[in-house]
Design goal:
This protein is of the alpha+beta class. The protein has 16 helices and 18 strands.
Amino acid sequence: MQENNNNQNNNQVEEQDINHLMQIRRDKLKELQEQGKDPYQITKFDRTNTAGEIKANYEQFEQKDVTVAGRIIAKRIMGKASFCTIQDCDEKIQSYVSINDLGEESYKAFKTFDIGDIIGITGFVFKTRTEEISVHAKEVTLLSKSLRPLPEKFHGLKDPDLRYRQRYTDLIVNPEVKETFILRSKILKEIRRFMDELGYMEVETPMLTTVATGDAARPFITHHNTLDLQMYLRIAPELNLKRLIVGGFDKVFEIGKNFRNEGMDIKHNPEFTNMEFYAAYQDYNDMMDTAEKLISTVAKNTLGKTTINYQGQEIDLAPGWKKITMIDAIKEITGVDFNTINTDEEAQAIAKEKGVEYEEIKNTRGHIINEFFETFVEETLIQPTFILDYPVEVSPLTKRKKEDPRLVERFELFIGGREYGNAYSELNDPIDQYQRFLKQVEAKEKGDEEAGGMDEDFVNALEIGLPPTGGMGIGLDRLIMLLTDSASIRDVLLFPTMKPLN
């Protein structure tokens, strides 16, 4: 109890200190405004170079005049001369500021600037006695007044919840966070380059849909006022992308947001970035080849290597990934062989024996096979592994296997015990597809909130004719987590979903 009281008292003192500093900064702003020097009235500032450009090309800039701009992150006042360090979009750079160069009035104003203020500096580039590349200021302009102290003034910004809520501050005081998002951008660019070289065309399809289909997930529901129509945020773009294959495009891909009204944890955010791609005249074997080449190439071109460390585990992304059927993977870990278990009743019995739980509305052999896999196998798949041939019950949009129609030509990709991608030999039989939609509707009526609905227009598209097609979806947020060694999906989302504080 005493410790809690101490923490509460410390927080109150800290809040009082912050309020006091904020008032001082507001008073400074008011004085500037009364002098006709309101920094918020400045609409533009002509910056010639960034700190990164200057420091990377010092010989080119030595003794040359430049104009830089950024946020003050350090400041040392030493009588008639001072040093300050600003941080811009890509680097930090020091500036030497003196009364002799600025004049008495401007130097006096500079001394009142606070950590966090955004300033512009014009001067020439030189090196100090300690060989630090700096700008010798001839003119300093206050461009924006920071009215709230940065967190580092106290204990830094380390609380994850506060970091995610105030990402703008997180990016300022934790430079490694900025690097994560710079790398995220490079990864997405590299993915697009790779897909372009394979002949895929990038497209955009609607995020608002009238039917909740594309995957087994609980949708977000909204309402279109003008049409007086219930609509859904898309679960996946799959059906629209396959409509484009029907329409005659051979290869299409889309990178965009999907939405699932489900739980939140280190692997899941209600909105997430996904890529789906489809190729006519290909199957799930071709999708395996593409996924393997894509991820290994992106790792090589963005990180310079294919062997990475993720949360203490060394993972080799070089091509040559393991391929194993779901039934064989279960047998390998548990000894249970579902090739010898042929009825729902037999599957239910072995589930009871092994302590595997399942929902009554999902009590078929296929559903129980999937439960066995998720319970015993998934977390053991550390090195890249393709799990092949899923039960038809959990794969409503996938072509059946000729050798065993209870299974489908589907795989999921697992790395580090997590799923990163899902691919099919796409179902193009409109009669079979219609029957599977009906089963989805029946499941929804029985209470399965994740079951999809009936999409009659998609069935109509299949009746026009979908060629044999391979398709795949890759969770890009998870892939970026892997390549940036980030523990939580929130670490790779600039603005993750958060519950409001009030």
